Amino acid sequence: MSADLLPVAIPTGQRPAPIAELFYSFQGEGVSLGRRALFVRFLGCNLTCGYAEVPTSHDTPAQGSTLCDTEYTWNSTKHDLSAGVWHLTPQEIWDELLQLDPTTADPSLAQVDLIVVTGGEPLLHKDAVLHLAHQARLTDRCVEIETNATIKPGPDLVAAGVAFNAGLKLASSAVPRKKRIKPDAIMEIEASGRARWKFVVSTLDDLVEIAELQAQFGLTEIWLSPEGTTPERVVEQMRMAAAPALEHGWNLTTREHVLIWGGQRAR
Ligand SMILES: Nc1nc2[nH]cc(C(=O)O)c2c(=O)[nH]1
Ligand code: SF4
Ligand SMILES: [Mg+2]
C-alpha cells in the first residue's frame, strides 16, 4: 500500500459528532437570559423524557406530563434522525459557529460572547464539547452546557471553566428514577462551583420533589423553568411557580425564545 492510501488516523479529540442545529439567538433560559449566544445542538440522548422507556413506535403514548421538546434529536420512531444532520469534527463545529457570529462579517459589531451547548444530551459528545470549551476560552467567550446531569463531565471540562445548566429530570418526565438521578454525576457537577440546577416545572408535585433533591444533594443554585412550547402555557406555568419559588429561595426563568417564536426550531 502506498503511503497516501494508508488510512488517516483521526485524533480522538477530532472525531466527527452528529449536529442537529447550529444557530444564533438569545439565551432563552436561566442566568444568562436574553444574552446573544451561538448555539450547538447535538443529536442523541440517554433519556426519553415523557416516556418510561424508548418508544417502540410513532404512536407510543407519552406517560409523563413533562415531554421532551427536542424529540427530533433522539426519537427515531417519530423523526428521521438522519435528515438534516451534519457530522462535523469539533474544529468544523467551531468554524461554523464563528461564521454565525455577526462580528466575523462586520468587526464593528460586538462579539457574541456566549456559546450554548445543548441537545439531546451534549455530554454524550464530550470530546467535541471540550474542544469548543477550549476554543471559547481562547476567544474570551463563556460556555454554558445544557445537560440532564446524568453523565459526569470529567475534570478536563470542569477545568475548562464551563458552566452547567443542569436540568435534572423529575418523576413527571416518566423516566425511572435510577436512570435520571445519578448521584456521582450530580455531585461532580455541584462540586464544579458552576452549576445552576434547572428544573422544568409542570405540576405542584414537581416542587415537592425539587425540595427533596435540593436537600439530598445540597444543590446550591436552583432555577425553575416553566414547561411549555407556547407563550400562553409558559406564562401560565410561571404564574403557578412564582410564589413557591420565592418562598423556597429559588430563581424563576422564563423561556424567552418560546415567548418570541413559539415552538420553532433553531431559535
Ligand atoms: N433561544 C434558546 N435558548 C435556549 N436555552 C436552552 C435551550 C435548549 O434547547 O437547551 C434553548 C433553545 O433551544 N433556544
Ligand atoms: S434529557 Fe433533554 S433532550 Fe433528553 S429526552 Fe430529556 S428533555 Fe429531551
Ligand atoms: Mg430547548
UniProtKB/TrEMBL annotation:
Keyword Magnesium: yes
Domain Radical SAM core: start-end pairs: 32-264
Entry binding sites for Mg(2+): T70
Gene3D superfamilies recorded: Aldolase class I (3.20.20.70)
Biological-process GO terms, alphabetical: tRNA queuosine(34) biosynthetic process
Enzyme class at the top of the EC tree: lyase
Alphabetical list of PANTHER family matching this protein: 7-CARBOXY-7-DEAZAGUANINE SYNTHASE
Sites where the protein binds S-adenosyl-L-methionine: G120
Cofactor: [4Fe-4S] cluster; Mg(2+); S-adenosyl-L-methionine
Protein's name in the database: 7-carboxy-7-deazaguanine synthase
Keywords annotated in UniProt: 4Fe-4S, Iron, Iron-sulfur, Lyase, Magnesium, Metal-binding, Queuosine biosynthesis, S-adenosyl-L-methionine
Ligand binding (substrate): F26, Q27, G28, R41, T118
